[in-house]
Specification:
Layout lengths: L1 H7 L3 H8 L14 H12 L13 H8 L6 H19 L8 H7 L5 H7 L14 H25 L14 E3 L2 E6 L9 E6 L5 E5 H34 L1 H27 L13 E6 L10 E5 L3 E6 L5 H16 L18 E5 L12 H12 L5 E5 L8 H16 L4 E6 L3 H6 L5 E9 L4 E8 L7 H7 L4 H11 L1 H76 L2 H26 L9 E4 L2 E8 L4 E5 L4 E4 L4 E5 L20 E3 L5 H18 L3 E5 L6 H12 L5 E4 L9 E5 L1
Helix pairs in contact: 3-10, 5-7, 5-10, 8-9, 19-20
Amino acid sequence: MQNHLITQLDLQDFIQKFTMLFARQKDFTLEGDKNQFFHYIKELDSINFTPPPRIENLDSSLQIIKKFGILKLQEIFEFIKIIRYFIYLKKHTEIQKTQYLNNYLQKIQLPDSLLEISKYFEKDGKIKNGIFEELDSLELSLKRQKTNMQQALELLLHSSKLAPYLVDSQIHFIDQTQTLLVKPGYQSVITGVVLQRSHNGFFYLLPEEIKSIYQKIQEIENLIEETLFTICKQISLVFNKHILFLQFINKEFDKIDHIQARIFFAKEFNLNFILPQYKNTHIVLKDFSHPVLANPKPISIDFNKQLLLITGVNAGGKTMLLKSLLSAVFLSKHLIPFKINPHYSQIPHFKNIFAIISDPQNSKNDISTFAGRMLDFSHILQEKEMLLGVDEIELGTDADEAASLYKVILENLLTKNAKIIITTHHKRLAALMANDSRIQLCAAIYDEEKQKPTFNFLYGSIGKSYAFETAKRYKIPLNIIEEARKNYGQDKEKLNVLIEKSAQLEINLQQKIKEYEEKIALYNKKQEALQDLKQQYINDFTKEKNTLQNTYNQALKALKLELKDKQTSDIHRNINHANKILNSLKIQTTQETKPRELSIGQRVKYKTSKATILSISQKQVLIELDEGMRLKVPPYQLKPIGKEATTPKKRIHIPMPKTSHVHLDLHGLRAEEALEKLDKFLSDSLLSGFDEVLVYHGIGTGILSRVVREFLSTHPKVVSFEDAPPQMGGFGAKIIKL
């Protein structure tokens, strides 16, 4: 499946170049934590290091060790090469300064017995001298016998008796045996064994004295083989004790091999790495070049929605844009470097990547193009959270029918969080899906003056196919093109233009809707702020009222104590003192309550809010706060701030009370409860539009009557109040005008 995807994306040559850098052939996919590997790559990329030597596959060797078998010397040396490479990395002075890679390598503890065995071998895999005495003695004997044989051959070649019978003065190898090429009649001067005859009737002769040396050499070589077998047996037993470590180090070597191959591949072809992100599916490519292109024009694209619909001119780069997006995600997923600007690019991780690009028509399987497409989609519909690319989506059937069918299929995939890229030169599907906020449109741009595609793209638009222009570019006769235009018809052309315009209008409409939704959300936020401000004013008023009530009660209590404890003269003296204080307060209050020079429309400040004066009466001023609320307040509470105009604010819509009455009964309630009910009653009455209401408070001790009177005299919305007529409650009730 993965190899098929590589072929569809035209990446097979690129991947093959990469895998050639492996020290041991394997699959190119990198299993494990990509973030960790990315750290290793970054650290090792900044260091000068030697790549590992070629290593054979050791799976069968590990099975032999596991079964107490005996490895060959070369198989043992393959393990030694791996161990030596890890020794090299662990001792590398620059790697010791790294963070992630050094920590990883230091955790790998190489067994002492394996380190000792690694010292047995030369760089070419032969056993060093001085390790095994018996082996050294045999190899010395072998060397001597070979020297003896060489000297004997030299004497024969320079023998005057044999010279007339020698065809040449060369040594000829027959079955890896050194022979002399002699003429007939040689028997009179030399004895030996003929190993073979030449085409010219001469003889390849193994002289008797050379034959005896050969026999000695073979005996020594057999002894060497037996000795090496014994050595391999001993080493294999040690390997068996460390089978788990050898399995581990063999696997870890593949990890290092993956990393080094990627680094040298990036350096050789000037490529960059992109670490895939798991947080979102936003794809951003900056200056990406597809590996298959010889002189590519870099692609930059911001694919931030769920489906990218690429339309426009044929041969305008639609398919290559699709392949580029899929290729970038695929290569990034496997941490394979490619040409891109990594500083301004972002690529997400997808568990599954699917491509429907080639024509699936197959006469052998009796399957049509459209049927093949349906078969592909039937498998994909079962998947979730994937990246899907479909080239020429309406291929193989009527474009209008296909547009309706694929619209439903694509919407189904979108609900499963699929990220989709499709290309088409038909406009029907683009028009049907243009109003979906999950869709991102992209049109291939065509240069009508030069009559050729630009391989650039315009985002947020539907492109035109330019079939007639493309035919003209490729030298199709003009009379044929004009006849085709007539057959195509002006109505069809106008319909296509209307489709393009309607789709663009739909896109613009969606943008406007989004803008207005944002404005509505802002207004709602302001409305909530006004409600909070209103509640704050209510809380402040209640707090101030309670403070004043407590102060009054404390003063009254203190006065009663004074009356009980002090003489009459003291009382009079204190009363006079109090009068002086009251007179000063009265003067101050008079000064404070002196009407300011105010005018209708004037800008004023009320507490912490700014407002505009709407009307002025003798005792109160009607103002409208910038937040939209209207209040009646005493003039002295307003501070002029100028007469500049203000932008009308959105009015707060306060819902009407569910129940409303023109009268309220406060009998039997404590003062605080009565004032809370009275406050709510007046607010509901104002909202209901009542100008006059009736409140029953009773006569009783007079406390409730006094509290109600004081509350009404300070309420900003109360115009006036008076005792009710006898038939409506008399002194025990108040008629209130709002």
